[in-house]
Inverse folding.
């Protein structure tokens, strides 16, 4: 397996290197679907140039990345391509190792449940076997590395790749059960864009189960663990924020980075939902809708946590998807991260209802994005409504994908508890509905 | 060749253009260009050779000759610059620290309009009522006025180590010889004129080729044609800028934009960050943890 992983890494690096050398690198780096005002490489260069001239990089509305990125690229700006390729490779390898460990745990739990006879007799075909699970980590790494979204994001040198790498490392350290490192990587991811904050909950749930602490709000050990984790998380966040202050000597990165993410002043079109709404909105209601949209990202955490209490890794997947869809400046790189998890749930394929529709819509939208952009901006025969329609369709497809997997997962769990062929009270076949 | 050169009447000695001669083309010597060069408000495409790249250690000599009147100077006989405009330009230069000391010689008729300047600093004024000098027999018009002649004669004796000071310059053209009234105004200058060396303003070391050859003007028709095209009267307006930073003559002055220096992260930050990383590393990757991770 390590050999095939190495081969995969080599192929991926070759593709990226080939694209870097080709003439496509420049147009890709300017596509609004691939880079956003936060993640654009052009802005990183601009920020570094401003710093060399003695001016704060956050003056003017140019640079919206964190000071640690400045520190990183101050030394690595000449090796930027290698850095981003390395970030992709690190993310893929981290996901590979995480999924391998997760599979082991899944299989172990299943074995215990089988021995305890917890499964009804007719759902034995739903039981997973090690042979089918053997290639899943490799498929995960492949889905991440060879995904066109990731390749585009890497060739454009979008800092989303670094964010993905940090999130992948967070997933790895959480699944391995290392509390401190999980808190630190989550803190780094949150420090870069605020939204991974919601990943605290699945991380805490998973780590509690890993340490056999019962997930019961009435018990003191639950709260003690929550306090520990939050202390580590908030403490490292505080340390990193103060360290960033010392890098540049001023606090003006706070409004530039976090104020920018939260208050969405830049309405460049992207694949997200914010720009069109805020472009057409009256100023009077702007704050209200801003709050509504931002709360929308964080809102799904609590209900999902309650429902998926026993399945924290799936909760992490759902949470990552929700962040990628509803964040203020999404790019295709964010989509690529949660799409990489899909092979982990490949055993749900028999319960997925909309997969054909979703895949067609996603492919069509990905193809239509540049077409309608061209029609809108260059040819002038379309307007922003066309592009926003495609954006909406893309996001609807993503939401449909996520909810479909949610349905399939819950349905499988239900079958594992109540049997595969369900009968209503009068003996006829029952249908399951997700309420 | 007649653009920007001064012709001595008898020996046809050509004085090469001095360090920064702006009169490279008659069409570029306009009031607007002159003021733009002085104040530095030039379009970004202007080459460096056409810019006055002075800073607050530069001494500037401005020598204006041509026609003038009460309160104004003529540029190329088609435009005028008034004393107020010049005063404003000098004030802008002073505010932006574009000169240390400025010597302003006005070699025109009624050049005393400089007396009306009120608020500039560090400016030396030389004014003059111009009177025509000997006519040149070959060309037939007056080529130079007396003041210029005597000034040139005086300046030819100045070498870079000369100790002649401003008072000597004032005495170059007494009334008996110049038949005009030279004036100077030193109240805007902060130093005593006797302590100011001529070479502070005139001392730019520049290769001057003096030739004793005669110039054979073979085509008389074209020659006069050139003269009348330039100027109906003897002196084409001549602007000489001599830039002399006191330290060394030919060193280019520093540009106005901020210097590019590489930014480095502060040492405390690097120390703190790597200490933290090492601490976390050793906290997690103690030897007994290693086999769990890998």
């Amino acid at each position: 397996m390590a050999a095939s992983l190495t081969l995969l890494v080599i192929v991926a690096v070759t593709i990226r290197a080939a694209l870097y050398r080709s003439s496509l690198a420049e147009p890709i780096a300017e596509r609004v679907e691939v880079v956003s005002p936060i993640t654009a490489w052009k802005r990183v260069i601009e920020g570094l140039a401003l710093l060399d001239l003695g001016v704060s990089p956050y003056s003017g509305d140019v640079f919206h990345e964190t000071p640690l990125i400045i520190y990183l690229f101050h030394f690595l700006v000449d090796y930027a391509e290698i850095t981003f390729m390395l970030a992709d490779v690190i993310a893929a390898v981290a996901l590979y190792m995480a999924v391998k460990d997760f599979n082991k745990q899944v299989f172990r739990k299943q074995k215990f449940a089988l021995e305890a006879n917890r499964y009804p007799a007719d759902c034995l075909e739903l039981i997973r076997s090690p042979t089918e699970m053997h290639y899943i980590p490799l498929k995960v790494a492949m889905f991440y590395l060879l995904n066109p979204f990731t390749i585009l994001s890497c060739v454009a040198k979008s800092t989303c790749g670094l964010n993905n790498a940090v999130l992948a490392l967070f997933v790895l350290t959480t699944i391995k059960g290392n509390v401190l490192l999980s808190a630190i990587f989550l803190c780094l991811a949150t420090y870069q864009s605020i939204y991974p904050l919601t990943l605290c909950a699945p991380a805490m749930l998973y780590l509690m189960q890993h340490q056999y602490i019962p997930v019961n709000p009435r018990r003191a050990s639950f709260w003690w663990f929550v306090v520990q984790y939050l202390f580590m998380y908030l403490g490292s966040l505080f340390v990193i924020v103060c360290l960033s202050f010392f890098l540049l000597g001023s606090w003006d990165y706070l409004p530039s980075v976090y104020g920018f993410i939260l208050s969405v002043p830049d309405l460049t079109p992207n694949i997200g939902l914010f720009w069109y709404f805020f472009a057409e909105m009256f100023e009077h209601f702007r704050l209200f809708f801003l709050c509504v949209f931002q709360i929308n990202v964080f809102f799904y955490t609590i209900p999902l946590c309650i429902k998926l209490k026993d399945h924290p890794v799936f909760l992490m997947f759902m949470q990552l998807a929700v962040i990628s869809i509803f964040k203020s400046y999404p790019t295709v790189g964010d989509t690529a991260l949660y799409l990489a998890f899909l092979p982990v749930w490949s055993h749900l394929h028999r319960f997925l209802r909309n997969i054909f529709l979703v895949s067609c819509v996603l492919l069509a939208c990905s193809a239509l994005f540049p077409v309608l952009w061209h029609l809108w901006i260059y040819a002038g025969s379309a307007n922003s409504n066309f592009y926003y329609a495609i954006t909406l369709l893309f996001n609807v497809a993503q939401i449909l994908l996520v909810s479909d997997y949610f349905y399939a997962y819950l349905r499988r769990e239900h079958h594992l508890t109540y049997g595969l062929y369900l009968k209503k009270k009068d003996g006829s076949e029952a249908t399951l509905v997700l309420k | 060749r007649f653009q920007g050169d001064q012709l001595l009447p008898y020996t046809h000695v050509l004085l090469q253009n001095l360090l920064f001669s702006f009169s490279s083309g008659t069409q570029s010597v306009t009031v607007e260009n002159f003021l733009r060069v002085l104040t530095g408000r030039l379009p970004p495409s202007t080459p460096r050779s056409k810019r006055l790249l002075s800073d607050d250690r530069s001494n500037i000599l401005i020598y204006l000759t041509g026609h003038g009147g009460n309160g104004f100077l003529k540029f190329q006989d088609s435009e005028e610059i008034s004393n107020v405009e010049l005063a404003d330009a000098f004030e802008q230069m002073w505010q932006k620290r574009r000169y240390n000391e400025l010597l302003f010689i006005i070699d025109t008729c009624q050049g005393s309009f400089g007396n009306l300047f009120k608020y500039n600093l560090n400016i030396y004024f030389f004014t003059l009522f111009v009177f025509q000098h000997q006519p040149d027999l070959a060309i037939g018009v007056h080529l130079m006025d007396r003041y210029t002649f005597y000034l040139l004669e005086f300046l030819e004796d100045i070498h870079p180590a000369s100790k002649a000071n401003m008072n000597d310059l004032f005495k170059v053209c007494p009334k008996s010889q110049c038949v005009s009234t030279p004036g100077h105004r030193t109240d805007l200058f902060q130093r005593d004129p006797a302590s100011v060396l001529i070479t502070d303003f005139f001392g730019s070391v520049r290769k001057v080729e003096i030739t004793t050859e005669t110039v054979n003007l073979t085509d008389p028709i074209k020659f006069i044609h050139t003269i009348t095209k330039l100027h109906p009267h003897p002196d084409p307006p001549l602007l000489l800028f001599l830039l002399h930073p006191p330290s060394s003559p030919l060193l280019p002055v520093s540009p106005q934009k901020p210097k590019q220096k590489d930014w480095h992260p502060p040492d405390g930050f690097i120390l703190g960050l790597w200490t933290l990383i090492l601490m976390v590393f050793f906290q997690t990757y103690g030897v007994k943890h290693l086999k769990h991770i890998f």
User: Anything to note?
Assistant: Chain B touches chain A through 19 residues (CB under 8 Å). Chain B has a mean pLDDT of 64.
